[in-house]
Give the backbone structure.
Amino acid sequence: MSGDAPEARVRRRWRNLLGLLRRPKPVVGATPADVVYRENKMELLRYRARPEGVAYRTPVVMVPSMINRHYVLDLRPGGSFVEYLVSQGHDVYMVVWGVPTAEDRHLTFDDVCDGYLGRAIRFAARASARKRAHVLGYCMGGTMSAIHASVRPDPIATLATLAAPVRFHDEALLSQWASMPSFDVGAMVDAMGNAPAALLQATFLMQRPTMSLAKFAGLVDRAWDDEWLDAYLALETWANDNVPLPGEAFRRYITDLYQREGLLEGSFALSGVPVRLENLRMPLLAVTFEHDLIVPAKSAAELVERAGSAEKERLHLLGGHVGAVVSRKAAQGLWSKLSKWWAAHDADAVALTAEAPPEAPSAAPAEVPSLAPSEVTENVTASEPPAASTGDEKPRTKGTARDSKAPRSAARKR
Amino acid sequence: MSTWDLWKKGFDVWEDATAKYVEQWLRSPATLVPAGSLFTAAMKTKAAGDRAVAAVWSAMGLPTRRDQERELHALNQIQSRLADLEEALAEMKAAQSGSPKP
């Protein structure tokens, strides 16, 4: 389609723009799944395995942010991270936080991060052959996963985080606003109960106030491309589908993490147990994004420096907070790398069928994916000093970036 | 280059420059401090209004919205405790039967 004549593009552009309202609503979060556990508004989804069955003994539990809907990780058929993982033979679970209602203003951070999240992870672990689960946290979900894993590590095989903030005092607008002395989060929670979705949405929009205009101009510019348009509409559906945040959990998240930097200062506790990121011992992969306005790369990379894991790695990718996770390139980049990383950390892979696709984990299970020049990983073993600077975001080639001697357990056919 | 492409290039330059300018403005204490104070004052006013209404309801012996929220939350807490108990029981059963710890 990119080879179309300019006149054809113009015609298609106007036809698509004029037909926007008649265009079918984008199908989002459509990968077949069953609700296997439910508690208050929270649900745990288990995605149905591919026809050949699952290929690994360790399930993947996805923990999205509480501020947005979970289906950013299962955006649309043909462009879904979950769908991709299922096709690769992973047993995938998703924590769906649901929409808090008025009474959930009393839900504390401990209720959510220790109670709900813990029971969801343990449920998935219990149902698996290995009795452990890989945990993937995205954004706020990544921070919560790291906090939980440092206090309750038992059922967690590995921890992967996508753009999960750990250092909250950074240059992002979000951090500046939240730590502003004249902003009294307590007064807001007392008045509103839950943090309203509209307020959270406005906060994100104000990260780049001209973004709505730019999006509109981009829409007109690319409207000739049907595939792009479908992806755009699906993403916009998600971006405008915010949910409120439980009041007490929000209060603690802002005061203890954003304002007091409790996670790095060591003053943060989960259900009374001090949270020490140094206590993280499982293999760790922290993914950061170069153009992330919401969670600057430095803020997310701090987890790798602080964690006590013998095997820890940072994967730095081009792209923004959301785009890098849902874009077309993600299938070849991020999704594939995560799938192979989990494959390499699956202690006992079960047999794959002979017709496994070339990308299937059995084809190259033990190798962590090689990196394009635009990406950086920093593998840090216990014997190596931590990365000198998290701000080192210049692209490096794989030869210089990947020199880890950390042992990797090989997935094997049964 | 078509007229649209030219316009789009110009728009991108304008958008980038404007975003940087507005971002500076949004970071400035001259904006943040009064905005934060105004927001906090509005929230405190709303909370005071809600408390006054709740006091009237309570004086009539009626449950307030906050009372109902507390009751529902208590039910949710009980559900969570039951889930914990079920887990603990399953663990004990597994230990007794000699199967691996769930």
